Write a sequence for this structure.
């Protein structure tokens, strides 16, 4: 959905509003504050600074903009109020709101929040083999045997990962395969490692990237997975997660904002923030980072394999074995 929103804003905004002169993407998760000023600030940044704030406001007031708002939290009253106020102030602009389907399903579809605009509901469906093949063909320019081989490899990866066949995840995997042309991705552990690498390294959109290198991000995620294991939960309330992040940063003497750091991990699709709770986007990510923690702390590994609850660790044990087999 995020890739589609950016494509619309960059290339297809005129198809949605013929008199539009610009398209914008506003990511709710990336807003510094839930204010109109923050939306405008992000809009200016999306335009690469080519427009001043006053010029952007003029285009919005004239109805010459398509505004794509991503990661809308339907159950967050503050977010709903913010969007409602923005759409009322700039009533003649065109709006496209996007939310994760699991968040939409949590609400009564016949009674959506009041965003101040009429809503038409559209679902983005998962890709089938035909669409995966076509995207692979466009990505690499392949035909014949090469195209069939790459398409089959991609499908095996998706089966091993047990993740939705969304255009975004498929694009990330295609990017990784492009970076690793000689890679033979056989087992689930390597497949997850490749996907995580793609999510963390491909989406380098933060201006503070130098502070958020993938080593720090992966260590934080391993610690989070270990904490979830300690408390025997798959997710925690948002306020407890925020405190965990603050404590992690304080313990390691990191001076950058923990909120910005964690928001980037959510934006990249590793973590999931919804309905006032935080966890891993997919359980395979949680198991993968816990397996990495096992590798870093032999005592935790020994405790797991000798535990009466060893049945809880079947995915982690498989991943741990797979990762070490690949490195043998």
């Amino acid at each position: 959905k995020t890739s589609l929103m950016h494509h619309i804003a960059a290339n297809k905004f005129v198809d949605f509003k013929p008199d539009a002169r610009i398209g914008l993407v506003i990511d709710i998760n990336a807003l510094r504050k839930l204010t109109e000023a923050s939306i405008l600030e992000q809009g200016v940044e999306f335009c690469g600074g080519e427009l001043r704030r006053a010029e952007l406001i003029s285009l919005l007031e004239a109805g010459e903009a398509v505004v794509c708002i991503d990661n809308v939290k339907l159950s967050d009253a503050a977010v709903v109020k913010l969007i409602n106020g923005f759409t009322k102030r700039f009533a003649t602009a065109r709006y496209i709101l996007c939310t994760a389907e699991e968040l939409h399903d949590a609400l009564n579809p016949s009674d959506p929040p009041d965003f101040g605009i009429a809503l038409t509901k559209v679902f983005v469906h998962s890709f089938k083999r035909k669409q995966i093949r076509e995207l692979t063909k466009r990505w690499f320019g392949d035909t014949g045997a090469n195209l069939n081989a790459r398409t089959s490899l991609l499908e095996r990866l998706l089966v091993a990962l047990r993740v939705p066949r969304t255009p975004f995840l498929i694009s990330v995997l295609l990017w990784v395969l492009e970076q690793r042309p000689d890679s033979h991705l056989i087992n689930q552990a390597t497949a997850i490692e490749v996907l995580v690498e793609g999510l963390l390294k491909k989406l380098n959109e933060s201006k503070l990237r130098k502070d958020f290198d993938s080593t720090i991000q992966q260590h934080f995620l391993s610690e989070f997975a270990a904490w979830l294991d300690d408390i025997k939960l798959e997710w925690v309330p948002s306020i407890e997660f925020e405190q965990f992040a603050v404590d992690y940063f304080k313990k390691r003497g990191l001076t950058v904002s923990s909120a910005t750091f964690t928001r980037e991990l959510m934006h990249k699709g590793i973590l999931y923030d919804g309905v006032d709770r935080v966890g891993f986007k997919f359980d395979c990510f949680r198991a993968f980072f816990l397996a990495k923690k096992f590798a870093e702390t032999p005592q935790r590994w020994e405790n797991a394999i000798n535990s009466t609850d060893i049945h809880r660790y079947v995915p982690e044990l498989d991943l741990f074995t797979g990762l070490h087999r690949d490195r043998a």
Remarks:
- The beta strands are 22-27, 65-70, 94-97, 235-237, 271-274, 277-280.
- The two ends are 38 Å apart (CA to CA).
